[in-house]
Design a protein that fits this description.
The chain is of the alpha/beta class. It has a domain at 1-74 and 193-266: Rossmann fold (3-Layer(aba) Sandwich), CATH 3.40.50. 38% of the residues lie in helices and 25% in strands. It contains nine helices and ten strands. The chain has helices at 47-55, 94-106, 112-125, 141-154, 171-188, 199-205, 234-237, 241-257, 262-265; strands at 3-16, 19-32, 36-40, 62-67, 70-71, 79-82, 159-163, 191-195, 208-212, 220-225. Strand 9 and strand 10 (220-225) form a beta hairpin. Helix 2 packs across helix 3 (112-125), helix 2 (94-106) packs parallel to helix 4 and helix 3 packs across helix 4. The structure holds adenosine-5'-triphosphate. Adenosine-5'-triphosphate is lined by residues 14, 16, 21, 23, 41, 43-49, 215. Its main location: membrane. It is a peripheral membrane protein. This is ABC transporter ATP-binding protein.
């Protein structure tokens, strides 16, 4: 596999008021271009910390991270992040929110009409054209997440980094957005690294599931290859033997071999 994202021996130690906190140790991970990776593990194990390192929002205390042949030293438009809570600017319309990202990436070399066309196309991709002129408080939580995804996709990032993007949504909206994300990623061929707590979400979406041990000093415990054919249909998969097997492997890892102790659950 040619690595598009490479994490070489990354470690993260935070300086806190109570002293040093060793969050991550010895993380080695290679992600191929176009791959869909999920990070799963118990609460507090360091999933967001690892995602933030790939985003360039934090620097590792040891080790190196590389994306497309360059060291990750800061956030960059080639690595767009979607957070659990949409992070849209409340005083701007949906289209203006998307436009901000578009302008940042393409503003110097494209006309206003081209930029507008990009924002409109991104909203259309996530089925939100009808709400282009609305402000975030006028639309539902699921719609806000779609606009957040549109904003990320409109920047044509090489990598889409998602931190529990559907975590705050009800089960039906979540399922709908997962299905849409699968279609969008099939079309854009984006490389995706996504944090999730949801075993079914991980199996449905991933090419590989990165399972993390509990912290402190968490690391990658195992990586599960998910060889289910695409496009994937959640209803058909529910009874698919390979799907059920993958699901069981993740459940075994999380609850039998790495059950959360009282200390980490606190
Ligand atoms: N800036 C920080 N300073 C100090 N400690 C931190 C900082 N960021 C994260 N941590 C600690 O590092 C550990 C990993 O946190 P992180 O948010 O990455 O976990 P997570 O697996 O994403 O958790 P969750 O699933 O609950 O979102 C936790 O113990 C957390 O308290």
């Amino acid at each position: 596999m040619t690595a598009f994202i490479q994490v070489d021996g990354a470690e993260m130690v935070f300086n806190t008021r109570k002293g040093r906190f060793h969050a991550l140790r010895d993380i080695h991970l290679q992600v191929a271009q176009g791959e869909f990776i999920t990070l799963i593990g118990h609460s507090g194990c360091g999933k967001s910390t690892l995602l933030n390192l790939i985003a360039g929002l934090t620097r590792p205390t040891a080790g190196a991270l590389i994306c497309d042949g360059r060291e990750i030293a800061a956030p960059g438009p080639e690595r767009a992040v979607v957070f659990q809570n949409h992070s849209l600017l409340p005083w701007l319309t949906c289209q203006e929110n998307v436009h901000l990202g578009v302008e940042r990436v393409f503003g110097a070399r494209e006309t206003k009409a081209q930029l507008t066309a990009r924002s409109q196309a991104a909203l259309e991709l996530v089925g939100m054209s009808h709400a282009a002129g609305k402000r975030p408080h006028e639309i539902s939580g699921g719609m806000k997440q779609r606009v957040g995804i549109a904003r990320a996709l409109a920047m044509e990032p090489k990598v889409l980094l998602m931190d529990e993007p559907f975590g705050a949504l009800d089960a039906l909206t979540r399922a709908k957005l997962q299905d849409e994300l699968l279609k969008i990623v099939a079309r854009t061929r984006s490389t995706v690294v996504m944090v999730t707590h949801d075993v079914d979400e991980a199996v449905l979406l991933s090419d590989r599931i990165v399972m993390m041990t509990n912290g402190p000093a968490a690391t990658i415990g195992e990586i599960l290859q998910v060889d289910l054919a695409r496009p994937r249909d959640r209803v058909a998969l529910a009874e698919d033997a390979d799907y059920v097997h993958c699901r069981k492997q993740v459940l075994d890892f999380l609850y039998t071999r790495h059950g959360q102790t009282a200390r980490t659950a606190a």
